[in-house]
Amino acid sequence: MKKKTKLIPALMAVLMLLSGCSGGKEEVPEDAEQIAAAVTPVEVMEAVPAKIEKTLTYVGKVAANDTVNVTSKLSGQVKEVYVNVGDTVKKGQVLLLIDDKDIRDQIAASEAQLRVAEAGVASARASLAQVSAGGQTATQRVTMETAVKNAQINVDNTKINMENAQNAFNDTEKKYNDYKTMLNAGVITQKDFDAVELGYTQSKNALDQTQLAYNSAVATLNQAQQSLKLFNEKTLDDTATTAKNGVASAEASRDSIQTSLNTLKSNLNYIKVTSPIDGVITSRNIEPTNMVSAGVSPFVVADTSKVTVDVEVSERIINSVNIGQTIGVNINAVYDAPVNGVIRTINPTAGNSGSFTVKIELDNKDGKLKPGMIAHVSFVETSAENVVVVPRDTVIEDGGEKYVYVTDGKKAEKRDVVLGVDDGASVEISGVEFGEQIIVSGQNYVTDGGAITITADEEETSETAAGKEE
Q1: Which domains does the chain have, with CATH numbers?
Q2: 136-185 and 190-230 helices cross at what angle (nearest 10)?
C-alpha cells in the first residue's frame, strides 16, 4: 500500500490549479472550496491476496529445562567443596569430597572380624568331618553293641536255668501228687508227706525265681536293643545335623561380615559427589567441615542449554495447538524480536482456573535466557489466507452497514463488505475483487460516485498492516 499522505497539501494544490485557470489572479474565487470539495484527493491500495491472523497472547516465565537436586549417597564430614553458585558443570564432575577416614577405620575393623569368622567356619567344618568319620560316636556304638550281646547271653543262660527248674519242678510235682494220693489212702504217714510237700514248694519257688530272672533278662535285652536302634537312627543323625548347623551358622556369620565389609568398601565410591547432568549450579548449601547427610541436597544443578516456558491457555485455542508446533516467543529483556520455540507438552485437562498448561521449549545455547524472565507467547486464534486485507480504519461503519470505497481512478464507488478475521490493526474483507483499487485514506470525505484524485508519495512505500503474502 502507498504510504498515506496528508490531504491538506493536496487540497491546496487543487485550489491553486483553479486560481491559475482564472487568468493568473491571486485571489481565490468565492466558490473555490466547493470546487475543491468536488474532487477529493485520496490514497489507494490494490487488493492483492494476503494473509491475516488474530492472536491471543499469554504470559509465562522462563524455567530451566531440567533441575536436579544433587544428593549424597553417603553421610559424613565434607572435606572439600569445588564449585560455587553460577559455575557451569559437566555430568560426572566432582562437586564435593567427603572425608573417608571413618570409613577406612570401619573397613579395618570389619576385616579383623572377618578373619575371626573364617576361623569359626574352619572349626565348624572340622567338627562335621569328625562326626562324619565316626569319632566319639563310634565308641558309644561299640559300648551299646556290647551291652546288647551281654544281655543276649544273660537271656540264654536264664532260659536254660528256667528250663532246668521247670524239669525239676515237674518231677517234684509228680512225686507230690503220688504222695498225696498215698496219704489219702493211708499208705504213708503225714510226716512222709510233709517232707515231699516241702520239696515241692521249694521246687516251685525255684521255678518262679528262674522265670523272673528270664523275664528280667529279656527286658534288659529289649532295652539294650532299643537303645542301640535309637542311637543308630537318631543320635548319629542329630549329631551330624548339629554339626552341619554349626557350619551353616558360622558361614552365615562370616557372610554377614563380608557383606558389611563390601558395603563399606563400596561407600568409598560415594565419597565424591558428582553432578548428574550438564548444567549450572543454582544453589549451594554446604561448606567444608559441614556434615552432609544421605538424601539431603547440598547443591541444585539446572540444565539451561534449553529452557521452557509454561503458559496457561484458554479453551478457545487449546484445540488449535499441537505438540511439535513451532511458535514465536517474545522475551523482551533479551531479544527485540520473537524467538522460535517448540511445543513439547499440552496438558489435556484444565486446571482449577479452566486453563490448559502448554510447555514450550527454546534453545539457549548462548545462555542469555535466565530462569524467571518474563515471556509473552502469542497463539493464533483464527487466520485467513488469499484474502483481501485492509487497514481497520479503511472500513466505514454506519449503523449496521459496513462498506469501503473502491475507485477506477476517477470516481469513488461505495462497496458493501463483510468483515472476517480482525487483528485490531487490519481486517479481512469480502466484497472486493483482487486487482481493484481500495481507497484507504480520504474515504471519509468521498461520496458514492464522487470525483477523486489519487495522491501518493512516490518515494515512501510500505506494506499493509497485514503484510504481503509469502
Answers
A1: 7-51+385-454 (2.40.420.20), 55-94+281-381 (2.40.30.170), 107-267 (1.10.287.620)
A2: 160
Rounded to whole angstroms, the Cα distance separating 40 from 407 reads 12
Whether the pLDDT of residue 19 is over 50: the answer is no
Contacting residues for 315 by C-beta, under 8 A, at least 6 apart: 350, 354, 355, 356
Residue 451 amino acid letter: A
Q: How far is it, in rounded angstroms, from Cα 162 to Cα 208? A: 8
Cα(234)–Cα(225) distance, integer angstroms: 14
More confident residue, 108 or 17: 108
Q: Which residue has the cell 498448561?
A: 357
* Mean pLDDT value across residues 148-171: 90
SS3 143: helix
Which of 260, 292, 309 shows the shortest CA–CA distance to 111?
260
C-alpha separations of 382 from 312, 393, 419, 462 in Å: 18, 20, 13, 25
Please give the angle made by the CA atoms of 317, 371 and 363, to the nearest 5 degrees.
70
Bridge partners of 466, per DSSP, are none
Give 407-436 pLDDT, tens digit per residue: 999 999 999 999 999 988 999 999 999 999
Phi, psi angle pair for 16, to nearest 5° = -65, -40
Higher pLDDT, 199 or 361: 361
Query: Is the separation of the CB atoms in 465 and 391 below 8 Å?
Result: yes
Question: Residue 369 and residue 86: Cα distance in Å, rounded?
Answer: 14
Tell me if residue 466 falls in helix, strand or coil: coil
- Name, in order, each residue with C-beta under 8 angstroms of 153's C-beta and a sequence gap of 6 or more: none
Return d(Cα 22, Cα 26) in angstroms, integer.
9
Task: Give the tens place of pLDDT for each residue, 41-85.
Answer: 999 999 999 999 988 899 999 999 888 999 998 888 999 999 999
State pLDDT tens for residues 294-338: 888 999 999 888 999 999 999 988 998 999 999 999 999 999 999
Answer yes or no: are the C-beta atoms of 40 and 453 closer than 8 Å: yes
Where would I find the H helices in 52-185? 101-133, 136-185
106-131: average pLDDT: 86
Residue with cell 508519495: 457
Is 66 within 8 Å of 279 (Cβ atoms)? yes
The DSSP letter of residue 29 is P
Cut 0.70: pTM above it = no
